[in-house]
Amino acid sequence: MGLTFAPGEVERLGLFLAMLLDENTRQNLTAIRSEEDAWERHIFDAMTMVSVLADLPEGSKIIDVGTGGGVPGLPLACVLPKLEFTLLDATAKKTTFLARAGAALGLSNVSVVTGRAETIGAMGSPHRRAYDAVIARAVGRLAVLSELAVPLAKVGGLCVLVKGARADEELDEAKKALHLLHAAHAGTVETPTGRIVVLEKLRETPKSYPRRDGEPKRAPLGVEKGKA
Ligand code: SAH
User: Fold this and answer.
1) Which ligand 1 atom sits nearest the alpha carbon of residue 136?
2) Distance between CA 192 and CA 182 in Å, rounded?
């Protein structure tokens, strides 16, 4: 991918993986058990996002929605030290691990938040409209994920979402959702491991979105009942 690493960065990525695989013996963070697969599926896959995020100005704020074991946000924080990362997950057991990992790696550009995206993206939350970029991997299809992600972005900000072969199909299904959320498809980047879908937030999100906890997944925006 033409990336170069500063001294210590690759070691830090390795230390994160070691902690992740170790913690995985206590709680289920990843189905991947081998080190070799973990380098590819967690580190290499996260690195495919660097080219999209590297152009953001110093100090830009990024939130990883549904970060789970910390991917992609934590590996990206290791190699993009000038950007500020917030790792969000609904499960406290996971965020407890992430706070410990961030501290062990000495990452001063990582903070961890426990909560649901529906709550922290709601009107009145300090996280709503607070991020230059919202990133996510494996947190549902675009019709669902866009309602969780877009409210957290600043107007003019981006959602940079890791997707696979079905990116176009998901985009098609999410057309109405993007319209309702005042977001637009800004482009799709082909990567060695899949596709990255980039959305741009055009205007402020209507205050009724995101809907209450669980609703985006139960009844995806703009998707006819029965097709969900
Ligand atoms: N991004 C990680 C984990 C994907 S699993 C990876 O790619 O490996 C999905 C994660 O999203 C789980 O950890 C789950 O707790 C979290 N999650 C699902 N819905 C959420 C929501 N509405 N708000 C916050 N976190 C959520």
Assistant:
1) 1
2) 30
Q: Say which residue the tokens 């205050």 belong to.
A: 207
pLDDT band of 96, cuts 50, 70, 90 = very high
Q: Where are the alpha helices (DSSP H) in the chain?
A: 9-23, 35-38, 45-47, 50-53, 73-79, 92-104, 117-120, 142-149, 167-173, 175-181, 215-218
Number of domains in the chain: 1
Reported pTM? 0.98
In a domain, 128, yes or no: yes
- The domain that contains 79 carries what CATH number? 3.40.50.150
Q: Is residue 49 part of a domain?
A: yes
pLDDT digits (tens, 9 = 90+) for 24-70: 999 999 999 999 999 999 999 999 999 999 999 999 999 999 999 99
**In this structure, which residue's CA is closest to atom 8 in ligand 1?**
71
| 58 contacts 66 by C-beta, under 8 angstroms | no
If you measure from the C-alpha of residue 46 to the centroid of ligand 1, how many angstroms do you get, rounded to a whole number? 15
85 domain-assigned? yes
**Pocket of ligand 1 from Cβ distances under 6 Å:** 66-69, 71, 88-91, 94, 116-118, 137-139, 148
Residues of the domain holding 48: 9-218
Ligand 1, closest atom to CA 67? Answer: 1
